[in-house]
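Hello, quick one for you while I still have it in my head. No rush at all, and the record is pasted right below.
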Amino acid sequence: MIGRREFITLLGGAAAWPTVARGQQQRRTAHIGVFSYLRENDQRAKVYIEAFLKGVAEFGWSQGSNLRIEYRYTGGNAALIRQYATELSALAVDVVLVAGGSHVGPLQQVTRTLPIVFVEAADAVGSGFVESLARPGGNALALPISNSTSAENGSNCSSRSRRI
């Protein structure tokens, strides 16, 4: 289970990734896809989205102002996973944040250029999503999350997210 603190920190940093990676000013509107295995009405989804919005706000992003977000919830439905992966790729979002390892493969099948940041994949390297956690290669970046909410792990996550 992802801790709320880790989710805020990691996804807040991930939202800044397209701007940092491309060296652009933060004044433009970022377009982010959120691709989740949860159902939209799942309480965890609501908590994660609240945390995500709070996290991106810490980096100066505000939905409706300089941030546009495309949400896709599948509830684990395989047909929806493929459909939404194709939709997000066609929308040409700047980055897709993926919650759930089952969603990474279908997304990589439809795009090898769109940046993918994902959490909650049991074995990102073994599944072939990334070459290694240190040097992922390709268009995907796995963010391993510790279940611990210790101050040490929180600061480690924070420093990683700022580098993305």
Observations:
- The mean pLDDT is 76.
- The radius of gyration is 15 Å.
- The first helix runs from residue 4 to 22.
